[in-house]
Amino acid sequence: MSQANPSSLPGQTLPDVIDLLVGIEPGDRLDTIRRHRLQARTHAQESYRALFAPTAPAPGAVTLAERLAVAAFVAGLHQQPDAAAFYAAALVAQDAGAGLAQAIAAEVSRGAAQGPYGHYPAGPLSRENTDGLAYAVGEAQRAVLGARLSAGLAHAHLLTFRPRDASPEALQALLDAGWSATDIVILSQLVAFLSFQIRVVVGLRTLAAHPAPHTPLSPRTAEAQP
Description:
10 helices
């Protein structure tokens, strides 16, 4: 697999990020497969650019450093080190502040869990309730990340592992930390997009590792070919 160039800034011209993370080269088998779903491929890249290189004036007040920090955190929670390294290196390239990428890496380790888990409202689904980590940023990293980003990471963890516990109180915690309603929508879009992007990367890597066997044509089928 070819290595992504995470030092490139998200706003610069760069290849399709999913291709980059998977190691897809022009003309190879996976490139051909993705070309058959060109609209999906284009929309995935456009979603990436909308979140990490939005056209000015961009809505909300979520900075690029915050977006990259959340992305590195969520990719790490999904146990995708290449994607986490891609976003973390882009975060460093933004001159986001000493220790920020390291703080994110430390919080990935603290926030590691297996999900989904959480509790449903009282009713038939309550029998599926599962306890799990109620994550909050550690005090050492909170001094680096600040109250706003710390709240953002806590919410990203909630959406990743225990979305069933989403509540007005969880949203209020973001508002109290300085996230506007528009910012909260962007934060939620980031978490959802990273989950989608990583699933596509994992699926394509699986295809790469297990190519479909070639099935020879039977004589009758071969005769029918033009």
